[in-house]
């Protein structure tokens, strides 16, 4: 005699499972995603192992930082370095603008060297009544030369003021420098007028031609410097300086010092050394 539970089990195979018996449905089995991800991770890790086996524990890969390279293979991160003023600097360590100014002044040295040599060759080629000893006014030219040399001092003060950030005094010294240069040019114009009245024309002799060419060409350079100074004052006042302000003033100062040094040479060879 069997109970109802036994009768329910009669006629059913032992291995047949129904959803009610706890066995999962074939179409509704839960997927083990965590196991699959772990398997994929292991596969990727095995693929990344370099040839030669698994590295020893604690061994870190060597990274080439470039610190042990030789000087021949060292490559700077930036091809253009910056100088103290913030401008592009080349291999010389100075800015490209300053290097260009030095090259320009070097070419001017060659030009003035040729003019001075020409005057030294022709200073004795003149008539007896219109020579250097008869027309030169050494005291007057000495005073105008002193004025020009003092302008170099005021130019140095202008450069020093702008380096300290004192724009007001910098503009003041630039104006004084331009005024002293204009005084020198005015004295040179007066001197040329006096020479002409005494009978020394531009085409009278080789001496007069070489003298007027040399000193007049220097006067043109001083005039150009005065224009540069006044233009610089206007640009600084409007705060429209391109690049570093102190470097721009310094570049104009280099030109101005150059014309002063050239005049020292001209004054010594033309006025002080007798023919």
Question: Could you characterize the architecture of this molecule?
Answer:
It is built from 8 helices and 2 strands; from the N terminus they run ααββαααααα. Helix 6 (167-197) packs antiparallel against helix 7. It has a domain at 88-272: Four Helix Bundle (Hemerythrin (Met), subunit A). The longest helix is centred in the C-terminal third of the chain and has 32 residues, at 206-237. The protein has a two-stranded antiparallel sheet with strand order 1-2. Mean pLDDT is 76; it is low at 1-20 and 67-86. It has helices spanning 4-9, 33-48, 96-122, 132-135, 138-163, 167-197, 206-237, 245-272, and strands at residues 81-82, 88-89. Helices cover 62% and strands 1% of the residues. With 275 residues, it is an all-alpha fold. The protein is elongated, with a radius of gyration of 45 Å.
Keywords:
single chain, two-stranded antiparallel sheet, 8 helices, mainly alpha, disordered N terminus, Four Helix Bundle (Hemerythrin (Met), subunit A), 275 residues
Short description:
By secondary structure, the protein is an all-alpha fold.
List the helices and strands and how they pair.
Elements: H1 4-9, H2 33-48, E1 81-82, E2 88-89, H3 96-122, H4 132-135, H5 138-163, H6 167-197, H7 206-237, H8 245-272
Antiparallel strand pairs: 1-2
Spatial strand order of the main sheet: 1-2
Overall pLDDT confidence: 76
Uncertain segments are: 1-20, 67-86
The total of beta strands comes to: 2
Structural category is mainly alpha
Query: What overall geometry do the principal axes of the alpha carbons give?
Result: elongated
- Over all CA atoms, what is the radius of gyration? 45 Å
Q: What fraction, in percent, of the residue positions are helical? A: 55-70%
Kindly report the name of the CATH homologous superfamily of the domain at 88-272.
Cytochrome c oxidase, subunit III, four-helix bundle
Question: What count of helical segments does DSSP give?
Answer: 8
Proportion in β-strands: under 5%
CATH-derived architecture of the domain at 88-272? Up-down Bundle
Order of helices and strands: HHEEHHHHHH
- Cα distance spanning the termini: 158 Å
Largest sheet, in brief, is: 2 strands, antiparallel
In CATH terms, what is the fold-level topology of the domain at 88-272?
Answer: Four Helix Bundle (Hemerythrin (Met), subunit A)
